[in-house]
Amino acid sequence: MTATMTAPPAKPVVKARKQSMTKKRREALAAYAFLAPDVIGLLIFVALPMVLAFGVAFFKVDGFGNYRYVGLGNYRLMAGDDQLWASLKVTAIYVVSFVPIAFVVSFALAMLVRNHFKGIGWVRSAFFLPNVVSLVVVGLIWQFLLVDKRGALSKLLAPLGLGDVSFLGTPSLALGTYVVISVWFLMGYQMLVFLAGLKDVPKELEDAAQIDGASAWQRFRYVIWPLLRPTSFFVVVNSTIGAVTGLQAFDLVYVLTKGGPARATSTVVIYIYEQAFTFNNMGYAAALTTVVVALLILCTGVMFAVTRGGRFDED
């Protein structure tokens, strides 16, 4: 009589699979639960206002809530609006100046505080501290420092003969001063983003390159920098959008100069605010907003296409 081989029961395997699927469902539900507040907030406070602004752009709206359909009339006004084009020029100069300077400064700081040394936590906190302060407070502090002839900076520069320089009251200096303050405010945040990217660079690759005789520059050029492309792309896109529509594009300018002197710091966001709340031209302001958002989407799409979203070259 020969023994017959019998297959083991499949019930334990099926039970394990069901438990695994149940665990995955619980994890997915937990992830959706954590994401839900942000998604709901974005829908209510971002997506819905954007849709409403797009609709209002086709109407002429006064300060009393009277609507009159004008079709594309608000968009046609933009072609002959010299102040709009001047504000776009100021915004473009600010973006072209702020984005690369902030990028280089924050990346240099990240490389500086990358390695651990005594007091590294205090150094990182000191660089990041301006970012946790309200922009209104930041503007007031810098306004106190830069007030003409009586500010702390004017007194410090007095021995050099620069005590009478009006950094916020001179059209040729106001925008540059605004760029410097913006870089000072955001360099800590971007430093932390770069620092997080540097933490993901495998130390083994750097050690292997060093063993092979690569210099510090070669290790940076061929090991660190390629691995930081996604992080660099995020920083550039995020800082570009923030420079056009972020808090520093409105709050900081409004507190420091309110768009002056001689509209030297009048960004496109300041101009939209003036049209909406100073001249009660809500329809035109909504049209301007939709155009600015469309331009940002276009620029972001171009950056994605050119850099492939910061991904590595496959060749």
Gist of the model:
The protein is mostly helical. It is 71% helix and 2% strand. The protein has a two-stranded antiparallel sheet with strand order 1-2.
The top-level CATH class of the largest domain is: Mainly Alpha
Q: Structural class of the secondary structure composition?
A: mainly alpha
- Tell me the Rg in angstroms: 27 Å
CATH topology of the largest domain: MetI-like fold
Instruction: Please give the CATH architecture of the largest domain.
Output: Orthogonal Bundle
In total, how many beta strands? 2
Instruction: Output the CATH homologous superfamily of the largest domain.
Output: MetI-like
Instruction: Tell me the number of structural domains.
Output: 2
- Helix proportion of residues, in percent? over 70%
- What is the overall shape? globular
How is the quaternary structure best described? single chain
Largest sheet: 2 strands, antiparallel
What series of H and E elements makes up the topology? Answer: HEEHHHHHHHHHHHH
Round the mean pLDDT to the nearest integer and report it.
84
| Order of neighbouring strands in the sheet with most strands | 1-2
**Count the helices. How many?**
13
